[in-house]
UniProtKB/TrEMBL annotation:
It comes from Alteromonas oceani. Gene3D superfamilies: HAD superfamily/HAD-like, Putative phosphatase, domain 2. It comes from the Bacteria. Keywords: Carbohydrate metabolism, Hydrolase, Magnesium, Metal-binding. It catalyses: 2-phosphoglycolate + H2O = glycolate + phosphate. Specifically catalyzes the dephosphorylation of 2-phosphoglycolate. Is involved in the dissimilation of the intracellular 2-phosphoglycolate formed during the DNA repair of 3'-phosphoglycolate ends, a major class of DNA lesions induced by oxidative stress. GO terms for molecular function: phosphoglycolate phosphatase activity. The keyword Metal-binding applies. This is Phosphoglycolate phosphatase. Pathway: Organic acid metabolism; glycolate biosynthesis; glycolate from 2-phosphoglycolate: step 1/1. The keyword Hydrolase applies.
Length: 226
């Protein structure tokens, strides 16, 4: 039997496996209301998500991508968000089409899978469990597992170390430039999905090795002999 090119596959979570913006936006708007700011809505949150929950809330409170928020508003807004997201972590979020068949096929064919997300662990683990995705992953690396988040390579290298694989044997699959930069810095191949959250930019601009329309395409691409 031919060898697998990528026996180790690392999956991003938000915007790759799960469309989580409906819950995130709902909770951002609860937090905005708590501190007397206007609701931000789904479209703004879609642009802001991807660098962890603290960064999302800095963006929501400042109403901008990069400006620092007013600290007096940020702290209570962040607390309100944490409480809301604990209760509304998965209800409105959905698993993208093609995800389950791809994960079923990969696990049935002996691939070792990790989830590497910038979402904090307190929200990652319940979301994976709620969506029936947790059993696919031997390792889950969240935004607060390592000292650095993606685009730093450490979370990917940490996941590979736990899986027992090398970067040259690994494929990262994500939706944002952070996933692509982290994979390049770690020395892994990287495929991207165009349907997720890349701060409003086309993911092609960051030159992933491949762009897939859906994870349903993955088995045919990674199967040995392809
Ligand atoms: O920024 C987040 O909270 C999560 O983002 P990720 O799962 O796409 O890494
Ligand atoms: Mg993502």
């Amino acid at each position: 039997m031919e060898e697998k090119q990528y026996p180790f596959i690392l999956f991003d979570l938000d915007g790759t496996l799960v469309d989580s913006v409906p819950d995130l936006a709902y909770c951002v708007d609860i937090a905005m209301q708590a501190v007397g700011l206007p609701p931000r809505g789904v479209d703004a949150v879609r642009c802001w998500v991807g660098n962890g929950i603290e960064k999302l809330m800095q963006r929501a409170v400042s109403g901008t991508m990069d400006e620092q928020p007013d600290e007096r508003l940020f702290t209570p807004a962040y607390q309100a968000f944490l409480a809301a997201y604990k209760a509304h972590n998965a209800k409105r979020s959905t698993v993208y089409e093609g995800v389950i068949p791809a994960l079923d096929w990969l696990t049935a064919n002996g691939y070792k899978l990790a989830c590497v997300t910038n979402k904090a662990e307190a929200f990652t683990l319940p979301l994976l469990a709620e969506k029936g995705l947790n059993h696919y992953f031997s390792v889950v690396v969240s935004g607060d597992t390592c000292a650095h988040k993606k685009p730093h390579p450490d979370p990917l290298l940490f996941a590979l170390d736990k899986l027992g694989g090398k970067p040259s044997q690994a494929l990262m699959i994500g939706d944002s430039k952070s996933d692509i930069h982290a994979a390049r810095a770690a020395g892994c191949a990287v495929f991207a999905l165009p349907y997720g959250y890349n701060h409003g930019e086309d993911i092609q601009l960051y030159y992933p090795d491949k762009v897939l329309d859906s994870l349903a395409e993955l088995p045919a691409i990674v199967a040995p002999g392809q």
